[in-house]
Amino acid sequence: MTIAADQHGGRRAATKAANRAAILDAARAVFAEVGFGSASVRDIIRRTDLASGTFYNYFPDKESLFRAVLEESAEKVRARVQAARREAGSLEEFVTAGFGEYFSFLADDPEAFALMRRNSGTIRAMFDQPVFGAGIDELAADLRTAMKIGIVPRVDAEYAAAAMVGAALEVGVAMIQREPPDVAGATRFAASVFLGGIERLGDGSTT
User: Using one digit for the tens of pLDDT, what is the confidence trace for 150-189?
Assistant: First the structure.
């Protein structure tokens, strides 16, 4: 490959990345403002400098774009939550840190906040998508590690992770309906529920 061809390929890749990012940015704003159901591909492309047909070079439909928007936000929050969990030195810190970081992310990021508030039903309907599965898998892995070093009692990591991620989603939806969003209260509630449950399961209690 010649230097000129290599440079051309590099510019083309950069342009494609920039176009995709522009579509994602526009989509995030439109979905946050009017919701998935009311948004159209035309609404989204109008927020960019791209030609209308360009959209389909990057996404086959509106739903795939919505998933990409969720995945981008999920990657950010998963990194924050995972870092907080891995700093934990006790069961209480492990559980509280995870919920606290997630709820803080929703409250602190205006676009993520609006996206969740406007699209909670659509997001619930997509709970079986990989965007949520990755978070469950990461939490299950962190739970198993925490069990090995004695921070978390022995419980079923897959059940616990699925329950905690599901609870985070639903409590987060309830939290953002409040004015102002009650991050401390949501964290305290969710953490208290799971701290009691994990401790009870860990000591073998069934009644």
Answer: 999 999 999 999 999 999 999 999 999 888 999 999 999 9
Structure tokens that stand for 158 in this block: 């897959």
Q: Model confidence over 32-77: pLDDT tens digits?
A: 999 999 999 999 999 999 998 899 999 999 999 999 999 998 898 9
Write down the pTM of the prediction: 0.82
Segments forming the whole domain that contains residue 9: 1-59
Residue with tokens 């981008």: 72
Residue 194, φ and ψ in degrees, nearest 5: -80, -30
Q: Is the peptide bond before 180 cis (omega within 30 degrees of 0)?
A: yes
Q: Are residues 94 and 120 in the same domain?
A: yes
| The total number of structural domains that make up the chain | 2
SS3 call for 106: helix
Rounded to 10°, the helix 3-34/110-125 angle is 80
